[in-house]
């Protein structure tokens, strides 16, 4: 359910069995079996060859797990000095064993954060989630600028690469040139207001994993 919600939330198109199987690293038949069970419980809706969607109870359950996962990631980074490429797998384990009380204590201790280290929104205790407008960097046209607000956290190698080239949440970028046939784009990057701009080439695969809050230009 968490994966279904996450795929829906990122707006990459209808949620399919094959897409879920790829994300979960399991076979299509395994996903089909899971969906049948969830459908019987009234948590998902899925017709053969159709998109997978969550019911209202399914959405509520998914948000509860997402809250646990994203708060745990935030705690691991803020308090235990984990890097952002290490926390996803740890949180995947911990989210199933900690109590609601423990999760609420983490939230209070951290000051009720609204996003996790990857910019993913953290649901509130009552299941409310705040969505901010953003676009994939890979889809931004030449001349568009904005601040990086979110990064796909499912690929640790990608997160390590972004850390190596010093590209992350809160940095301002502008698309200088798109090179679709070369599979890359040229950016200018400003880490913060006190830092000078620098030039950065970025592959489109990496750009497909970054979201920016644009300035409404371009």
| Strand adjacency order, main sheet | 3-8-4-5-6-7
Give the name of the CATH architecture of the domain at 135-214: Roll
Residues in helices, as a percent range: 25-40%
Query: Helices and strands: which structural class?
Result: alpha+beta
Regions with pLDDT < 50 over 5+ consecutive residues? none
CATH-defined superfamily of the domain at 135-214:
Ferrous iron transport protein A (FeoA)
Please provide the count of β strands.
8
General shape: globular
What is the ordering of alpha helices and beta strands?
HHHEEHHHEEHEEEHE
Largest sheet: 6 strands, antiparallel
**C-alpha termini separation:** 36 Å
Number of H/I helices: 8
Percent of residues in beta strands? 15-25%
What's the alpha carbon Rg, rounded to whole Å?
18 Å
Helices and strands, with pairings:
Blueprint: H1 2-9, H2 17-24, H3 28-40, E1 44-46, E2 52-54, H4 56-80, H5 87-94, H6 100-110, E3 135-136, E4 145-151, H7 156-164, E5 172-179, E6 184-190, E7 198-203, H8 204-207, E8 210-214
Subunit structure: Homodimer.
GO molecular function: DNA binding; DNA-binding transcription factor activity; protein dimerization activity; transition metal ion binding
Protein name: Manganese transport regulator
């Amino acid at each position: 359910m968490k994966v279904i919600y996450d795929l829906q939330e990122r707006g990459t198109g209808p949620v399919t069995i094959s897409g879920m199987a790829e994300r979960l690293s399991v076979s299509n038949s395994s996903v089909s079996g899971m969906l049948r069970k969830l459908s019987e419980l009234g948590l998902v809706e899925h017709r053969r060859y159709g998109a997978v969607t969550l019911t209202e109870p399914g959405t509520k359950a998914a948000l509860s797990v997402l809250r646990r996962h994203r708060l745990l990631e935030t705690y691991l980074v803020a308090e235990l000095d984990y890097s952002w490429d290490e926390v996803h797998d740890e949180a995947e384990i911990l989210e199933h064993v900690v109590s609601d009380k423990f999760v609420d204590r983490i939230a209070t201790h951290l000051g009720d954060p609204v996003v996790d280290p990857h910019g993913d929104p953290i649901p509130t205790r009552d299941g409310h989630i705040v969505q901010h407008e953003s676009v994939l960097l890979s889809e931004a046209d030449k001349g568009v600028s904005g601040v990086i607000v979110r990064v796909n956290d499912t690929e640790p190698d990608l997160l390590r690469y972004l850390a190596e080239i010093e590209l992350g949440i809160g940095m301002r970028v502008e698309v200088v040139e798109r090179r679709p046939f070369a599979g890359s784009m040229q950016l200018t990057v400003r880490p913060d207001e006190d830092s000078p701009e620098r030039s950065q080439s970025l592959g489109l695969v990496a750009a497909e994993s970054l979201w920016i809050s644009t300035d409404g230009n371009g």
